[in-house]
Amino acid sequence: MSAGVNAAVERAHSEGVLTQTSLMVNGAAASEAVAVAVRSPTLAVGLHLVLVQGRASLPPHDIPELVDSDGMLPTAPIWSGVRYFFSPRLREQVRREVLAQLEAFASTGLPLSHLDGHLTIHMHPVVLDIICEVHQRYAIRCVRLPLEPVAPSLDFDRRFLGRKLREAAIFHVLARYARARLRKCGILYADRMFGMHQTGHVNEAYLLHLLDRLDEGVSELYCHPGVTDAEIRYWTPDYDRDGELAALVSPRVKEAIASRGITLTSYCELGRRQAAA
Q: Which of 8, 34, 109, 128 could form a disulfide with 225, with the two C-beta atoms 3.0–4.6 Å apart?
C-alpha cells in the first residue's frame, strides 16, 4: 500500500513475530515492497488480491464495467459483490483482472506462499471459483479462510458489537462454502484466523489476550502494521497501524509466545510440508 506499510512489515519480520505478508501488486509502493521481500528471504509473501478500493492491473478498455476511466476499482464492496453475481460480462472482467494480478505477482519472481484478498474479497463465490479453477496453473497451495471465533474479540472489546456479529455471521456462511471448494482442490488453509473482528486495533493487549486462548492447531493472525504516511491516512484513517507494529515487535508478546510453546510458521512452510507429503 505504501512505504510506511513496507517499513513496518520489514521491521516486524526482522525484529518481531511477523512471518508472512501479502503484496498488493498495484499498490503505490509495490516495487519497493518486492525489494523488501527480496532482501528478506525468510519472509513468506502471498498475493493480496484487490478488486475493490484500489487500482486495477488491466487498462480500463479491457475491463470497462469493473473500473472507472482512471482504472480505479469500485469503493463499495457489498454493492460490487452483488454485481458480480448478476452480470456475466462483469464476472468475465473480474476473471481477467484476477489472472492479471496473478501474472503480475509471478513476474516478481517471488514464491507465492498463499492468496488472500483486500476486504476479504477472495471469499466471494465468483472470485473463489476463479481461484480454484486456476490454482494449479499458478501454484496456489494455500488460501486465507476467515474462520474466526468471535468470542475472543468480544471478551477483549465489546465495542462495535453489531459489526462483529454481522461479520461473524456473513463469513461463517462464506467460509463453509469455501472450505468445501478448497478441500476438493487440495488447497490448504489455517484451522482458524484471528484479528478480522479487531481490524486496525490488533495491539499488544489484544495479542496477549489472544495468546492465552489459542487452541492446538494452526492459527493465523490478521493484522495491518504500518508507519503512518499519506497513503495510510487516506485509505485507513481509523486504523492504529503504529500500535499494531508496536505489538508485533513487543518483547512481552515474544516472551508470551515462547513461554507457551507456540511455533511461528507461515503458509509457505505449510505448502512445503504438503509438497513433501
A: 8
